[in-house]
Amino acid sequence: MTNRTLFASGLTLLLTLGTSGALAQGTVKIGVLHSLTGTMSISEITVANATQLAVAEINAAGGVMGKQVTVVKEDGASDWPTFANKVDKLLSQDKVAAVFGGWTSASRKAMLPVVEKQGGLLFYPVQFEGNECSKNIIYSGAQPNQQALPALDWALSKGYKNIFLLGSDYVYPRTANLVLKKHILAQKAAVAGEEYVALGGTEFSSVINKIKAAKPDVIINTLNGDSNVAFFKQYQAAGYTAASLPVISFSIAEQEAQAIGPQLLSGQYAAWNYFQSLPNASNAKFVKAYKAKYGASSVVTDPMIHGYVDVYLWKAAVEKAKSFDPTAVRRAISGVSLNTALGKVTVDPNGSLTQSVYIGQSGTGGQFKIVSSSKGVVAPQPYDALAFPGKTCTGM
Amino acid sequence: MNSLFLAGQLFTGLSVASILLLAALGLALSFGLMRVINMAHGEFLMLGGYLTYLSSTLVGPGYLWLAFPMAFIGTALLGMLLEATIIRRLYGRPLDTLLATWGVSLILQQAARQLFGSTGVPVVAPAWLSGAVTVHGGPFDSLTFPYVRLFVIGLAALVLLCMWLILSRTRFGLHVSAVNQNREVAASLGINTRRIDLLVFALGSGVAGVAGVGLALLAPVNPTIGASYIVNAFLVVVVGGVGSVLGGGVAALLVGFFTALAEGLTSVSLAAAIVLVAVIAFLQFRPKGLFSVKSRALEEG
Question: A66 with A121, same domain?
Answer without folding.
Answer: yes
